[in-house]
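Quick one:
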Amino acid sequence: MEQLAQIVAEAPAQVAAVSSLAELDELEARLLGRRSVIAELQRGMGSLPPERRPEVGRALQEARAELQDLIARRRHQLEREAENLLLEEDRVDVTLDAFRLPGGGEHLIQQTIDEVCEIFIGLGYVVAAGPEAELGYYNFDALNTPPTHPSRLESDTLYLDWGDPADEVLLRTHTSPMQARFMEAHDPPVYVVVPGKVYRADTPDATHSPVFHQIEGLAVDSDITMSDLKGTLAHFAREFFGPRQRIRLLPHFFPFTEPSAEMHAACFHCEGTGAACRVCGGSGWIELMGCGMVDPNVFEAVGYDPGEVTGFAFGMGVERLAQVRHGLSPIRHVFENDIRVLRQFRGIA
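Output:
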């Protein structure tokens, strides 16, 4: 009994000195395990006189209960400390700013396309899109381009299926095929702009690329004249380059327009003076697009009556517009995706 009393008296200090759950398990085995003093005393109960057994048994049960309570409370305390330590190690300071990637922006080409389309939408035009893999019929024949035209050679156009003029498939050389496609699907009047990617067998240099973007425009109605074309393009130039912008039309040739013209805009750098200007080369003017009145043969190809309707068409290179407006050279700056270049044109639209 003295030995039992000594164990119970020393147990609180021993339990309090334990610093981990593993150490507590070892202490519990020494105090209450199968080889502990209490277990040996319980096994020796049979050798005691009958009158002593109740007293010793009660003392053993009380000692075991007290030790179990001490160990249970210390275990709960150690578990809370371990949990708090784990939470502290995993703690996230929610008051700090989260890591944020810089926001993206539209590419300069897309910004230019959107701005040009918005100008013509303001004039009542709609925006349409067509296939990049096009039939030779829509790319050439429906646009009054004869089979002998040089642009139909395999060396000038990127063909997907070449050899049979009645069934040729190619990467479109302009967005003009949508003139025919749109008129086939819609009755006049027609006012449409068609942005898109086009392909030509050009050698890359400072001003040329085999892949670039173009915006085609088409207006068909009754009594449309060349003056309507000039007024529309003058309005576009003022909206895109500034209210003081001037344009001029020079005679040219395109198979699908007659008469045809090139539109030039006064150089924004020298304001049309041409004085030692590196942008316009001293001419005072910059070529921007081709245009003209729709050829009657194009109307007949889509089922329109040339005696009832007239119209004009124009086509402009998006990269050229961006180059002229922002003074970019060479053209590869537009599509190389150099972050140093792209960052300059974020949010300029």
